[in-house]
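Interim report, section 4.2 (structural modelling).
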Amino acid sequence: MSDYKIETKCIQSGYKPGNGEPRVLPIYQSTTFKYNSSDQMGRLFDLEESGYFYTRLQNPTNDAVAAKICDLEGGVAAMLTSSGQAANFYAIMNIVEAGDHIVCASALYGGTYNLYAHTIKKMGVEATFVEPDCSEEDLNAAFRDNTKVVFGESIANPALVVLDFEKFAKAAHAHGVPFIVDNTFATPINCRPFAWGADIVTHSTTKYMDGHATCVGGVIVDSGNFDWEAYGDKFAGLTTPDETYHGIVYTQKFGKAAYITKATSQLMRDLGSIQAPQNAFLLNLGLETLHLRVPRHCENALKVAKYLQGHEKVAWVNYPGLEGDSQYELAQKYMPNGTCGVLTFGLKGGRDSAVKMMDSLKMVAIVTHVADARSCVLHPASHTHRQMNDQELMEAGVQPDLIRFSVGIENADDIIADVEQALEQV
Ligand SMILES: Cc1ncc(COP(=O)(O)O)c(C=O)c1O
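Predicted structure of the assembly:
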């Protein structure tokens, strides 16, 4: 980890050109890497020597960008993945196997919920979902002997619930398991999960990190803080010989880099969800302005939230940065400089008014995305959850009138003017 301030890290971390080398991170657009002796290539395959051999496992462009994000989060090792979904899948599968169990805060992105509730269940891994504001007692009661991980989102998408890091970290560590946090919405600019007890952080880099809606991607960062050997029986994949790598014991050979090395050498080797180097290059451009964009997203979102709160046609507004919001206190504790640019709101006219208002927007676009420079909206009841009736929507925690508003970095007055004229049509 460098000593630079976070703004400097956004620009300088990761890629360090040598004398006469390109000033800007090059795209290593190559599937493979050349060696002079087959002996040396053999040592790479045995993990006896570090170096690149095939881009399905590692690529220098990706590694430079992963190193930057690692520095931003304050970790010891990181890897890029092809999507945020792949990051959350690998982060768990690197330490669980059939017969294991995980505990998750229930306020989660729908894709992550499906992954943990249904897809990994087919692989023999069961998840228990706990309310984010559950008591310590209820949280502890969710653990079983075979529990291997606790997972939560720093700010849940789209519930906008702020994770009580200390409560979840305490329970995870009391049960000898790591605490994994998806920090996509808060970003390391606003929240540093490792400082609050998280052991591993993931991101959908598709969102604020890329910031321009150009590339789907993900990242996993390890703090290096979890002591796998202290719970060696639980995490045998890290602490006992890997026969697919000539009996290497990851914790012994790679120390604090054990978790990411295992994820690279086993999961990337076998499943191959690597990020394309060209996408990593574009992600790096996004990261260079992350520290400028995120505060503006938050500033604009707060202005829009306050405007909506004062509008007669608006029934309710959720924004964790808004004083009086149910999440405000937690946000002040864990992310006092800002939360994110996403807010949700409902109209007094309900579902039909929501659709009418959205269809009347001129600049703010209807898209299935959040967290890029351009303001956008989504109506889950009409889009992502459109197969459900109103009652089913409520059961799934999605109000039929809920509009998710990802506030961009245009001039806030222009965003508000667009919303105003759209509300006049309702
Ligand atoms: C919090 C969070 N995590 C993970 C994901 C999945 O990321 P991706 O779409 O890059 O696969 C998303 C997507 O919206 C998200 O919002």
